[in-house]
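Hi, does anyone understand the following?
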Amino acid sequence: MWKEEIQFFDCLDSTNLEAHRQAIAQAPEGCVIVAKEQTEGRGRRGRSWCSPRGNLYFSVVLRPKLALDKTPQLTLLMGLAVAEAMGMQEANIKWPNDVVIDGKKVCGILAEMAPVEHGASPYVIIGVGVNFRTDGLEDGLQSTAIGLDDYRENKQHIHDANLELLYDILDLFQEYYEEYCRQGGFEGFVARYNDRCVNCNREVAILGPAGEFRAIALGVNAKGELLVRREDGTEECITAGEVSVRGIYGYV
């Protein structure tokens, strides 16, 4: 069980960086790195991730025996596990890597592959940051972030609440990951994911190398791509670029 492979740290530069270090040293699949605080937390596209104490930060080492083009789907799989582990209908997924409540970000997910230059056996790192509280976040994030404590009816000691959610997420993700590997893909999770995908049937702004366009999101497909319909009725699959959803994070 992966919960037997958890390593707890008081403070790290980044749980993803520590997971990379241990994966290069041949840490087993399911090794979990948890920190109370990160000094160099990272998000997508090299962005920093504000990581004050009181929230949940962890990374998991995976060694999937799958084609490389399937590894981005692991981010979606973790998003589904996080949203369901929160146990509330309000927890939804903003494709591809955020969990949101009432249009505000409660969780971010970052997947990273093994650096080729290390020559180590293949691995993938999935990093997760969940807000329990927002009072320690930078001022610019206050309007777009939300903490789980705002929704907990019976608040527990913050450390216990973090551990409870961590174990619930790991239980679900391990179950989904093993099913995913048996199936060889994301097909069996599409309907469940789209039920929680906040992008579905909403206007999105696609920000890619070729510029910006707007479309209606129709949901994800079996490859984990976001299917959208342009104003002229043509449909296409989005695999990269930034996606903004109307009403989410201040996009109107």
